[in-house]
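Structure first, sequence second, as always.
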């Protein structure tokens, strides 16, 4: 199944993350970014509706937001019950890479669940890994 992706964040985080993704994995043409609350940008609802209007029956939409409980996630939640729409709050770069590069034949829910587990392992207090910092 094909997938479309949206990264929605406060400020310019979404476009900054897209820049990092393109440096690491290349073209992210299937990704839309929403830099919320910045001067001159469209509303979150408008951006979401534009992507949802083009969503084909054989496509999933995965929406990444920066903060669980934040205003962006709250606005996106109105789409949470739509078929084939998946919302992931609290993204990091490792999570995005794994999900964007996942086999499109694997169900989105399965990809997201595995990527969340792997992303949690990527967050480490590195000093605690050094024996002299016990």
């Amino acid at each position: 199944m094909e997938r479309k992706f949206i990264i929605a964040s406060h400020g310019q985080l979404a476009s900054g993350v897209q820049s990092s993704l393109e440096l690491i994995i290349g073209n992210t043409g299937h990704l839309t970014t929403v830099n919320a609350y910045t001067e001159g940008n469209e509303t979150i609802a408008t951006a979401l509706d534009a992507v949802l209007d083009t969503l084909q029956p054989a496509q999933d939409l995965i929406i990444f937001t920066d903060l669980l409980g934040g205003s962006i996630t709250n606005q996106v939640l109105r789409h949470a019950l739509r078929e084939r729409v998946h919302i992931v709050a609290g993204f990091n770069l490792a999570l995005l890479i794994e999900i964007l590069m996942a086999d499109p034949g694997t169900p989105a829910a399965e990809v997201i669940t595995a990527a969340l587990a792997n992303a949690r392992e990527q967050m480490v207090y590195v000093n605690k890994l050094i024996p002299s910092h016990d």
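Margin note: The longest helix spans residues 108-122.
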